[in-house]
Design brief:
- The complex is a heterodimer of chains A (258) and B (420).
- Helix content of chain A is 69%, strand content 0%.
- Chain A has twelve helices and no strands.
- The two termini of chain A are 21 Å apart.
- Chain B has 420 residues and is an alpha+beta fold.
- Chain B is globular and about 75 Å long.
- The chains are: A mainly alpha (258), B alpha+beta (420).
- At the A-B interface, helix 2, helix 5, helix 7, helix 11 and helix 12 of A face helix 1 and helix 5 of B.
């Protein structure tokens, strides 16, 4: 499957380009929509959690601490939201051309990667304007991202394939990502979680990831801790193998069902 | 060398919309286990779109697929194209395949024509750079240069069909699967496509062709496979298969009284093409006898009628083709109707139709033009020429005519030429 994907990387690039072209077509402000959502979320979160609920975020301030977590979280959430329906939304191509099906979810994740780079750029600008710059541990970013990418790929492979047969998956995605957001220390720091709830929050693979991103990106900068990342590593390995196995074993049926 | 081989291919589909499809979402090998433990539940609500179909196509040949709607022609093309996999059996295709399953060929509605060309190319494994060199050729062939920068969603059906065909043609496939796409688009473009297909075959391309147009089929293919209810019932030289197929189509239409499947199929066909009988009812056709076409394509029709209110009427025997187009009619002069009923007999000297299947319509019209009875018969008239006299694009009816070429007895062109 991965070899097939690699040999069709041209197609993945074309698909990413196509979806990006189509996304902002016939809109008034166009590409500005790539920046508006992360800024709006951050603004609202800063107002509610930083201003009203007054969560203590240390000396860097709530906005920086939260943005460091929002960057990886938005990638996760948007990959799920657009990746899971990616197969059924390409039904017209699927029933006519025999290309490797895996390019569809992978290319939607590619779109989310573009969004990720935009919000990462916003974060960097913020760090050097509002905050006190990026710490040296920010070099861990690519490795942490790779881990998150594997986790996301596994979830999306499995869920997008399952969604072809049971559309419940797609319907459940917004709810799931919303609930998942509450269980992940994105809008609040991990330190604010009470001790009795901590094991539950830590078992969530995204907790370790998001927290590691935050530690690496926010001064003073702490290198990732393998213990904290363990659920994410196990999750990535299990989900990626399960997801790609399930996807390859049912992909020949997609054209019959969509 | 056989370039396309299907070996005992069966394709099983589920019927109905269904809720969550547990049976389909179960991955192998668990699906086989479930099928074994709960066979009744597993196979409930399924049908075989293809059943043990075996065909082999040698490189450079052109093979046609005929059969009524729902016979499995498109499914077979889809299986051969690799869009879907067979439930049982094996498919082997040794070469680059491109399929025109329908006019849409998988275009994205939001993308412009030019963007779609690049997209379709990369779906078939061609790089963007390679496809860019083809854009000019494609836009030239499709004849929609001025629309290339417009999203495909604003195209007419004919325009997207043209772009689809032109793009697929530019992919230089070794094996081309074509499913009745030539029916879309105007006749000019159709001719262009047929010319292109001829050239493609001359260059050694392999063609699998689905069409309801029997004369086109005869021109395009040497071999033919007739599919009926998912089974390959006959395969062989095109002329032989088409003759058998046409005969069976006719029998299916006339076997109204033998009941069963064929009768229901005929009824369904009638329904799909609209109501088969209506009228004001002042005079009615009681019984019709349509004879066999004789060797001069003459046809005898005898109509028994009954009349209650109408005193004078015109009888009309019209013909429509498979696509439902009215082809022409034989019309009587004004006839005095007899109280109670009577018989009129019509001798059609020569039908003069092109190869195809035609359905007669019997009608009784009053002098004011009121249709009192209009009855589309279940009986089909099959015209089967070895070679059609009327060239393509010149309609379906040969107009009776006499020609005189002795008007100007000058030197024939051949002699003038040789004298030069």
């Amino acid at each position: 499957m991965f070899r097939k994907l690699w040999s069709h990387r041209d197609l993945v690039v074309s698909l990413v380009r196509r979806q990006y072209q189509v996304r902002y077509r016939q809109s008034m402000v166009g590409i500005a929509w790539a920046i508006i959502p992360p800024l709006a979320t951050l603004g609202a979160a800063t107002l509610v959690f930083g201003g009203i609920a007054k969560i203590d975020a240390g000396k860097e301030g709530y906005a920086i601490v939260t943005m460091a977590a929002l960057v990886p979280w938005s990638f996760f959430a948007s990959s799920l939201t657009s990746g899971i329906p990616s197969i059924i939304s390409s039904s017209s191509t699927l029933t006519r051309i025999p290309f490797p099906r895996a390019v569809l979810p992978v290319s939607t994740i590619g779109i989310s990667m573009i969004d990720l780079s935009i919000s990462a750029a916003i974060f960097v600008i913020m760090s050097y304007t509002v905050g006190s710059g990026l710490p040296a541990t920010a070099v861990w970013f690519p490795l942490l991202f790779l881990l998150e990418f594997a986790l996301v790929l596994g979830v999306v492979f499995f869920a997008s394939a399952l969604n072809v047969f049971a559309r419940d998956v797609k319907l459940a995605v917004p709810l799931t990502t919303q609930l998942w957001l509450f269980l992940t220390p994105v809008l609040y720091p991990l330190s604010s979680v009470p001790d009795n709830l901590r094991p539950l929050v830590l078992a969530n693979p995204m907790t370790g990831l998001v927290e590691s991103f935050r530690r690496a990106l926010v001064p003073p900068g702490i290198a990732p801790d393998i213990g904290l990342l363990l659920p994410a590593i196990i999750g990535a390995v299990v989900l990626l193998s399960l997801g790609s196995w399930y996807f390859t074993s049912v992909e020949t049926r997609f054209a019959d069902v969509v | 060398m056989d370039i396309v081989v299907a070996d005992a291919v069966t394709k099983n589909y589920r019927t109905g919309v269904g809720r969550a499809r547990v049976r389909e979402m179960t991955p192998p090998p668990f699906d086989r286990g479930l099928a074994k433990v709960f066979p009744n539940w597993w196979y409930k609500g399924t049908f075989n779109a293809l059943e043990d179909v075996s065909i082999s196509v040698s490189s450079g040949s052109a093979v046609g697929l005929v059969g009524h709607n729902g016979a499995g022609k498109t499914t077979l093309l889809k299986v051969l194209a690799g869009v879907t996999s067979p439930t049982r059996g094996k498919v082997q295709v040794n070469g680059r395949v491109a399929a025109l399953i329908d006019a849409l060929v998988g275009f994205h509605p939001e993308l412009t024509g030019a963007e779609n060309i690049l997209m379709l190319g990369s779906m078939h494994g061609f790089g963007r750079r390679h496809m860019r060199t083809k854009v000019a050729q494609i836009s030239d062939f499709s004849g929609i240069e001025d629309m290339l920068e417009t999203p495909v969603k604003r195209y007419s059906a004919g325009m997207s069909a043209r772009l689809g065909f032109a793009t697929i043609a530019a992919l230089e496939p070794e094996i081309l699967l074509v499913d009745e796409v030539l029916a879309v688009g105007d006749s000019n473009f159709q001719r262009k496509c047929i010319q292109w297909l001829d050239g493609y075959r001359e260059d050694g391309g392999t063609l699998l062709f689905v069409s309801h147009n029997l004369s086109l089929m005869r021109n395009m293919t040497q071999q033919c496979v007739w599919l009926d209810h998912g089974k390959a019932v006959l395969e062989g030289p095109t002329s032989k298969v088409l003759a058998e197929y046409a005969r069976a189509m006719e029998e299916r239409m006339t076997s109204d009284h033998t009941g069963g499947d064929t009768r229901r199929a005929a009824k369904r066909l009638m329904r799909s093409t609209g109501m088969n009988r209506w009228g004001a009812g002042g005079a009615r056709v009681k019984k019709v006898h349509v004879g066999e076409l004789d060797e001069h394509e003459g046809l005898e029709v005898v109509i028994d009628y009954e009349a209650t209110q109408v005193e004078r009427a015109t009888f009309c025997i019209g013909f429509i083709d498979e696509a439902g187009r009215e082809i022409g009619a034989a019309v009587s002069r004004s006839v005095v109707l007899h109280q109670g009923g009577g018989t009129v007999r019509c001798d059609i000297g020569k039908l003069g139709f092109k190869t195809g299947i035609y359905f007669p319509i019997i009608a009784i019209l009053s002098a004011e033009g009121t249709i009192h009875d209009r009855w589309r018969l279940d009986r089909a008239v099959v015209v089967d020429h070895e070679q059609d006299i009327i060239p393509d694009e010149f309609g379906s009816v040969e107009i009776p005519s006499t020609w005189d070429d002795e008007q100007y007895p000058a030197e024939p062109v051949a002699q003038l030429r040789s004298a030069e």
